[in-house]
Design brief:
The chain is α+β, with helices and mostly antiparallel strands. Helices cover 39% and strands 10% of the residues. Helix 5 (87-103) runs antiparallel to helix 6.
Length: 448
């Protein structure tokens, strides 16, 4: 194995030359070859790494051209003026370059200059392999809706082959549903359907903590692509997904982390755990979906998490305020209920939660925002709007003059007729509602 300071690694056995990110930073200006203008490319390359183009290098260019055996091909032309258009010719030239790099003295200017030429050739070869002009803007595959990306500067990683997507020279697509990214050339190799379809059809979480079944049940293969895996890393490392409990290869499991719903519900634990790529996308799409009914899954959680009790009370109050708003013209014009547009389930029920709700409850963000909204709603009903004030109640047990509302903290509501009383008065009267008593003795009477 020989190497030089810029980060080029060469193998004597395989004759493979890998260009590192460090080299790409130095030689990125070579992309100007797309303009086929030698006078533009040369200054850019000199600015990127001037020492690679010293006077000694320029005077010896003819010797190096003869070494490559390509005296009349593109090596004798200025940078950016490659004339090799045939892929096979480019592959032969690349192999010849790699052979010469291994033979040249280590750290020599001739070796470095040959590496630059190798980069040029590989860029040209990649361009011929991935032509942009024939690629459609939208492609549909396995329920994925792939949209062609136009960004040339943002660096991404292909979800299929796990290699870097160089937007400057490669065509790539992103699924608008699950944000799966891949090269154009990798699209025909995709076997996994879009995760959004699973979210639409299933919409539920795995509620067992890391339900492992064992590698033997998986036949020692990746749970997604069926590549052979083992815990020893031969032929590929087996990585466990904490959400599904299954094992995946390194191409399907990148050691991404996510908060696991089962651990939150059963342990109130929010530490991110390692998950596979498909689980990460699924959890991201499910994050804001209210599919968790805590009082059925783990009702004891309310006994140990005070914040949950507080949020439940605020949500119950908001549901009691909702009838006032939907019959109030001013409230409808002010669109008060739309203050909860990002948590619409809060105005529909008080027992369904999303994973994002639980995360925000744990951090304290939801309590602050919901308390502020609750205060705004109560202010409209009790102070700002005369129509809403007129819908208040007077305690029929003590006959005091203050107006009561069902969402007040010191009141109790009759479950049968929804009449509102002072809590102390109601319990002192053995929770007996005088309105219901009158209706029982005189069915024709309608207190409403």
């Amino acid at each position: 194995m020989v190497s030089w300071s810029a980060g080029i690694c060469l193998s004597d056995q395989s004759h493979v030359c890998e260009i590192s990110m460090h080299d790409w930073v130095h030689f990125r200006a070579v992309c100007a070859y797309k303009e086929n203008n030698a006078s533009c490319c040369a200054p850019l390359l000199l600015e990127a790494k001037p020492e690679l183009f010293s006077s000694e290098t320029r005077t010896q260019s003819s010797d190096r051209t003869m070494d490559l055996g390509l005296a009349e091909d593109h090596f004798s032309r200025p940078v950016g003026s490659f004339v090799a258009s045939d892929i096979e010719q480019l592959k032969l030239a690349i192999e010849e370059c790699k052979r010469l790099i291994l033979e040249l003295p280590e750290h020599s200017e001739r070796q470095k200059d040959t590496v630059v030429k190798l980069i040029h050739l590989r860029l040209k070869l990649q361009e011929l392999k991935d032509p942009e002009e024939d690629e459609p803007n939208l492609r549909v595959l396995l329920e994925h809706r792939f949209s062609k990306e136009k960004s040339k500067s943002v660096k991404q990683t292909c979800d299929k082959c796990s290699t870097i997507i160089w937007g400057l020279i490669q065509t790539w697509y992103t699924c608008t549903g699950c944000y799966y990214r891949c090269h154009s050339k990798c699209m025909n190799l995709i076997t996994k359907p879009c995760v959004r379809s699973k979210v639409s059809h299933q919409s539920e979480y795995e509620l067992s903590i890391c339900p492992e079944i064992g590698l033997d049940r998986q036949d020692y293969r990746c749970a997604e692509c069926r590549t052979p895996v083992s815990l020893r890393g031969v032929p590929s490392e087996a990585r466990q997904c904490d959400y599904t409990g299954q094992y995946y290869c390194s191409a399907c499991h990148w050691n991404d982390t996510a908060i696991i719903p089962a651990r939150v519900i059963h342990n109130w634990e929010f530490e991110p755990r390692k998950v596979c790529r498909s689980s990460m996308r699924y959890l991201a799409l499910m994050m804001s979906r209210p599919v968790l009914k805590l009082k059925e899954i783990n009702p004891l959680l309310f006994n140990f998490v005070e914040e949950l009790v507080e949020i439940r009370k605020l949500r119950q109050d908001i549901l009691l305020m909702k009838p006032y708003f939907i019959t109030c013209k001013e409230a409808m014009e002010a669109r008060l209920l739309l203050q909860l547009h990002d948590r619409q389930h809060f105005v529909e029920n008080d027992d369904m939660y999303s994973l994002q709700d639980l995360i925000d409850i744990s951090s304290g963000r939801l309590s602050c925002s919901l308390t502020e909204i609750h205060t705004t709603f109560a202010k409209h009903i009790k102070l700002d709007c005369e129509r809403c004030q007129a819908k208040g109640f007077v305690c029929e047990l003590c006959k005091e003059g203050d107006i009561l509302f069902p969402f007040d903290s010191h009141t109790s509501v009759c479950h049968d007729c929804s009449a509102v009383f002072h809590r102390d008065c109601y319990y002192d009267n053995s929770t007996t509602c005088p309105r219901c008593t009158r209706k029982k003795h005189n069915p024709a009477e309608d207190p409403a």
